[in-house]
Amino acid sequence: MKQSVAIALNAVNIQYDKEPIIEDLSFSFERGKSYTLIGPSGCGKTTLLYTIAGLNALRSGDLTFEPLDAQNHIAMVLQEYGLFPWKTVWQNIILGCLIREKSLSDEDTLNAQKIAKEIGLEAHLDKYPHQLSGGQKQRVAIARAWLLTPQIMLMDEPFSALDTITRETLQNTIITLIAKRQLTWITVTHNIEEAVFLGAEVLLMGQKGGKIVKRFENPYFGDPHLREKPEFYALCLDIRKAMQAVHDET
Description:
This protein is of the alpha/beta class.
């Protein structure tokens, strides 16, 4: 059964300093589905993500959410973590709730403690960001976003600065979280393997205009052992060939 639409873009145009970045883009993201955006540098992936987050203004077109209040239930995980260095891990985790609700309820506190334990931060709550590894910092950012119970989760190349094993461990964490709660998840990445592992649908963007030139359905999504299977590498190869074709277009 087809899921209902969570985010709809209709003839969207975005520009920076009068230079068009996204031109006449129409696309719908289904509710409860995990998408990954991949494509050449400068093709508009991050611009699209930030537009959905409400951080970019539209030059023209429409961006709508269903339900309408979904725009108020968006959380974002950044590449550079976005942690406050003068706050502890615990204070960084609960910060979003404090900003949104002005105070922390008993339920929020219990949820934050549960999330910290699930994500492997229980022993680090009194530490400051400078005392953490890159992987631990990103876990804090994920926990902070997750505590907000968003309907839409956005991630902008969250693991690109991490070593392979740490990156794959955190990818496994994301798959576990996705299985716990149904929400629309959109991840921007330059890594094909990451795109396949984290995306129920992989969206390939073209060189210019923010166009989605090819969509890859991933029937193996959600399998924590997917990297060990030949189907994983076959899909990665298909996407790599399509990406090469996009890069060859000049």
